Amino acid sequence: MELGSERIVPTPKIVNCPQCGLPVEWTPENRYRPFCSKRCKLIDLGQWAAESYRVPVEPRDADTEPDPTE
């Protein structure tokens, strides 16, 4: 065997499923990443659709910013 002819396969990164917390391999083959399953992915989608998640925004300062509806 020649020096340098062997391939080094990196160990896949392990992350926790954001829904249930199970460990998940972060690989292109994992079609549900970062989730562990279709079930967890759909639960998360349902929570977004039900507006259970909110993206925080800072209140607009009425004195310095124009109202975009005017």
Summarize the structure in words:
The protein has 70 residues and is of the alpha+beta class. It has a domain of 37 residues: Erythroid Transcription Factor GATA-1, subunit A (Erythroid Transcription Factor GATA-1, Chain A). Helix content is 17%, strand content 11%. It has 1 helix and 2 strands. The chain has a two-stranded antiparallel ribbon with strand order 1-2. The chain is elongated. The termini are far apart. The mean pLDDT is 86.
Short recap of the structure:
The protein has 70 residues and is α+β, with helices and mostly antiparallel strands. The protein is built from 1 helix and 2 strands. The protein has a two-stranded antiparallel ribbon with strand order 1-2.
Low-confidence stretches: none
Spatial shape: elongated
Query: What is the CATH C level class of the domain at 13-49, in words?
Result: Alpha Beta
| Largest sheet report | 2 strands, antiparallel
Indicate the CATH topology of the domain at 13-49: Erythroid Transcription Factor GATA-1, Chain A
Mean pLDDT: 86
Structural class, by secondary structure, is alpha+beta
The CATH homologous superfamily of the domain at 13-49 is named Erythroid Transcription Factor GATA-1, subunit A
Give the percentage of residues in beta strands.
5-15%
* Terminal-residue CA separation: 74 Å
Indicate the CATH architecture of the domain at 13-49.
Answer: 2-Layer Sandwich
Question: Which value, in Å, is the CA radius of gyration?
Answer: 22 Å
Give the total of beta strands. 2
Q: Helical residue percent? A: 10-25%
Order of helices and strands: EEH
Treating each run of at least 4 consecutive H or I residues as one helix, how many helices? 1
